[in-house]
Write a structure and sequence with these properties.
By secondary structure, the chain is an all-alpha fold. The protein has 8 helices and 2 strands. The chain has a two-stranded antiparallel ribbon. Helix 5 packs antiparallel against helix 7. The longest helix has 30 residues.
Amino acid sequence: MTIRDPNVLIKRGNLRAHVCDLPRTSGSNLPKLPPNARFYSRWKRNLQKLVLVATRHPLTRSVFRSQTAVAFEKKRHSKSSHRWMIHPFSMLRFYWDTIMTIIFLYIFVTVPHIMCFYRIGKSSSPERWNIVYPTYAICIIDIFLNFITGFISPDGHEIFLDTTLVAR
């Protein structure tokens, strides 16, 4: 078997590349902005990139087995009427889940400490709880954020980004 295309030979020489790989581009499948685009347009585009599925998300490779599947999911999400919904494999959702993990660990340590050591000594004044109240506010924001985040089907083969399905 002889391969006459030099690009295929280069790709086969590199062990990490595959002949069927898509070319590496920005990967967002969003229309390009003109060079003189305004600040609001650039900010909106960066927010849209945070909401789309990301190849850097740890779970993306387990659900989408190739770059083509990831590109198709990005195109499907960006062209749908629910493009403002947060994809469950987006970087925004990954960052938010990381922040929520840290906050839950903080709450799980702080609240029992206050309940045990300050309630027993009868000195549990309201200023002791002031360090916990901001975390409660972030947890309320998390509840609202969950209503605008898509979810994965139980069998793991489909991702739903419809608001009526998410609300159920």
